[in-house]
Amino acid sequence: MRIAKLSTWLMAGAMALSATLATAAEEVVGRPIDGAMGLQAPATEVARDLDWMDNFLLVILSAIVVLVMALLLIVIVRFNKRANPKPATFTHNALLEVVWTGVPVLILVIIAIPSLRLLFLQLEVPESDLTIKATGSQWYWSYEYPDQGIEFDSLMVGAGFSTWGDIQNSIKTDTDEAKDLKKLIDSSGTTEETWHLMTDTRVVVPVGKVVHVLTTGADVIHSWTIPAFGSKVDAIPGRVNETWFRVDKEGTYFGQCSELCGKDHAFMPIVVEAVSQPDFDAWVAKEQAMNGTGTTNVAASN
Question: What does the radius of gyration of the chain's CA atoms come to, in whole angstroms?
């Protein structure tokens, strides 16, 4: 009974902590918060389930730690040499052995059921409304919208610079390159705190639509990761992997390459902008006009 109550309290505490973290994360949509704990505020069904699973496992693990510590304390207090000078002589207890074998098996089954459901949710790609191909290179991402005929590279704002101070010093030179860099920084809202996360171009997707992402690598293994989507898939040369997401609300979401891929691995961010369907259609039309690819397949499927 006491263990059941403790589990209830732990679950309530985990849920309260999750709600607090989610509220804090909403202040800056889709961007990690300095000093925060826990996962980013989820923006997709998969991310919400991952968040729940994380809290669920935390409760189970905490309960096991408390139980084991309680048993250790009982043994230390009741069965030390002073309190129990004559040691017991029994060699085994059949019931106890069944319990300490059966209970862990039961716990693993309880964990396995939601784990398998979540695994299938991640791996089974539903019928998609939009397909995007992401190719990882050292050290930037290239994107293709095959149905819309759109292609572009996405590099970190200030790529090639090691520090924000170097960027500021470069801007002061007043060269054409410096003017272009300043214009990009101003238009993207890049600051000293966010320049590692910002890119010169962004992946744009419509909210409420299933986005099918295909990944591959041009040179070494990379990993396309957006924590708020619960998406993390390796981009491997000579192989095409896949994942999917459906964003719940408009906003800008940030990720980074999550596979050590060389010298500038830390300078390979990902930015996804989720917009309304009309705004997405307008963006597609604009990109197609710039690339001369026509105006067919403007909208994602309804």
Answer: 26
